[in-house]
Amino acid sequence: MVRRSRRPRIPSNHHSRVFETMRPILASLLSTLALAATLAAPARAEVVHTVLTTPLTTAPNPGGGCCDGTGVWFNVLTGAAEERGFLFPSPLYADGQYFLLLDTVTYTTPEAMIFVQGFFSRGNGVVYDNSFSTNPAWFGEGAVIGPATGYQSPGAGFPDIGPLFGNGELGRGFLGLTIRDPSGSSAADVLYGFADVTINADWSLTLNAFAYESLRGQAITTFTSPVPEPASGAAFALGLAGLGLAWRRRRAG
After folding, report:
1. Residue 39 buriedness (CB in 10 A; 0-12 / 13-18 / 19+)
2. Torsional sign, CA 103, 101, 167, 207
3. What share of the chain has pLDDT > 70, as a percent?
4. Distances (CA, A) of 45 to 143, 167, 191
5. Taking burial as the number of CB atoms within 10 A of a residue's CB, which of 54, 130, 146, 161 is the most buried?
6. pLDDT at 34 exceeding the cut of 60
7. pTM
8. What does the DSSP 8-state code read for residue 199?
């Protein structure tokens, strides 16, 4: 007769105990992996979007912008925006700063304009329509503004948006912006952005929002609502932890 040896019976809660013992080690490992993935990942573009709770509209500027600060001033990099009267702000020039106005003196009818209040020599500017029509280009929603868009030569064109000159159309649209990257070393080191603007029936301009891509040279796509951020390394680790919890429940069942 052959006698069989009986295998010891494993308690039903054995796997659960093993998991409880290993859980701190697994959690530490997942956190380390997530941190390593975050540190090793290359820099990625992040849209910095500033929405105005109360949109700002340009009042008539009787000085044409050269001698009167009346209009809407905003800085894409700092997120600042304000309506101003006659007095100009201080500083008058800064990277990422722009001035929207309704010029009522230069022409026979009011003209909408945008002035670049950052030094051209540092790469601050607007995206012109093309090299033959050097007025600011007018974009719709979903347009891509980047290195290959329009004509880019800061200071080489004119500030007119319309109606006498320029490419603006009544209603909501976008102006393309080139902004000096503060960490850059030349005028070519720019960030791409846009101003979300409504052209009203009297050609006054209402600033709704503005945005830029934080990665140098990265194109931006125009939009009127915030874009959700990509999943982070922390969210990835949380997802793995969730899988571990599901595995534990399955084994316990």
Report:
1. exposed
2. negative
3. 71
4. 17, 29, 10
5. 161
6. no
7. 0.74
8. E
